[in-house]
Amino acid sequence: MSGVRENWMRQWRKTSWLIVAVASLFVNACAAQPGASDPYAAARANADRQAKEWVARGIPGLSLTVAVDGKIVYSEGFGYADLEERVPVWPTTKFRIGSISKPLTATALMQLVEAGKLDLDAPVQKYVPSFPDKGAVITTRMLAGHLAGVRHYKGEEFRIQQHYGNVLEGLKIFENDPLVSPPGTKFNYSSYGFNLLSAVVESASGENFLAYMQKHVFGPMGLAHTAADMNAQIVEQRSRFYEKEKDGTLENAPYVDNSYKWAGGGFLSTSEDLVRFGSQLLQPGFLRAESLKLLFTSQKTKSGEETGYGMGWGITKSPSGRVVYEHSGGSVGGTSQLILYPETHVVVALVTNLSSGEWKAVEVEAVAEKFESGKK
């Protein structure tokens, strides 16, 4: 019996090595012809190259994700989420997304419109009676399109360190200031206008703004890694934040408290969550077709001039002539970009942990457009 067993073992070893050899040849053949098995191979290589170039320019860490037809086809982290501890960036690292918080807030507005709880053209005081009358009607539609005349940051307001317990407290920063232009007459970008919209969401829904976003937007859309940038909370995989000095050296970004501007620029997210979010807005489903049209149609001033901004989204064209819906974000210790291609259903998101943008939107667009050629 021992001889039979030894013969069987020798035969098994020979067969095993044959299987390994064949598998190795198959893997090497696939590697030699990446295009045959991976239609996005060239696009992935290009994305890797561009991301490494951004890191070489001085970005401590970044995450880059691309989705096609709602499926993530590329997602990588580069550099460090924490320079001191040498913690690498992963696609699940959370970054400050700045003004990409605005499209998230706009999604909440459209939900409330669909539920019959919000009239976009009613005076804002219908929902926020404490907001002072400015002598002209200001509406939710105007606020969501930066046409209300509400001012933007001034002075050191971008670096506020005070904590605000609720959204109404945050409105006190600007609510008594004069408008910068009559409502409806001029596009004036304003994060404070979106802060006012968070109060509108609370009133129309009867829920706390952050609780509403979690329950009705983040949760249902599968944005498991998107949340308010709460300093006091332990947030898993939250990046550290950095700034670059004039001589090029990196320093820790100063302490700030974003509680005064959740809706306009206070959320954390990942590049993967952002492309999930954008992909769900490229066809009716989470929102109705008429709601999507409002988000992605340029508003006009009273004189009929298009602003290039819908409700929480910029509408423009890439250098290649493709229509894109986009929003960038700037934070203390973070810059970001989210771009949607409605014609090809390609979505790209870049998030970084550096205050200054060592990248260009056209470069992000070029990364995304390489993935269009891989579509079947």
Describe this structure in words.
This protein is α+β, with helices and mostly antiparallel strands and 376 residues long. The protein has a single domain (39-374), classed as 3-Layer(aba) Sandwich (Beta-lactamase), CATH 3.40.710.10. The protein is built from 12 helices and 12 strands. It has a 7-stranded antiparallel β-sheet with strand order 3-2-1-12-11-10-9, sandwiched between helices. Strands 4-8-5 form a 3-stranded antiparallel β-sheet. Strands 6-7 form a two-stranded antiparallel sheet. The longest helix is centred in the first third of the chain and has 31 residues, at 2-32. The chain is globular. Mean pLDDT is 91; it is low at 1-10 and 12-35.
Content-based structural category: alpha+beta
Order of helices and strands: HHHEEEEHHHHHEEEHEHHEEEEH
Number of domains: 1
CATH architecture assignment name: 3-Layer(aba) Sandwich
Taking Cα atoms only, what radius of gyration do you get, to the nearest Å? 24 Å
Report the mean per-residue pLDDT as an integer: 91
Counting DSSP E segments of at least 2 residues, the number of strands comes to 12
- For the biggest β-sheet, the strand order reads 3-2-1-12-11-10-9
Low-confidence stretches: 1-10, 12-35
* Number of helical segments with 4 or more residues: 12
The level-1 CATH class: Alpha Beta
In percent, how helical is the residue content? 25-40%
Within CATH, the superfamily carries the name DD-peptidase/beta-lactamase superfamily
Here the CATH topology equals Beta-lactamase
**In whole angstroms, how far apart are the ends?**
58 Å
How big a fraction of the residues is strand?
15-25%
- Gross morphology is globular
Describe the biggest sheet? 7 strands, antiparallel
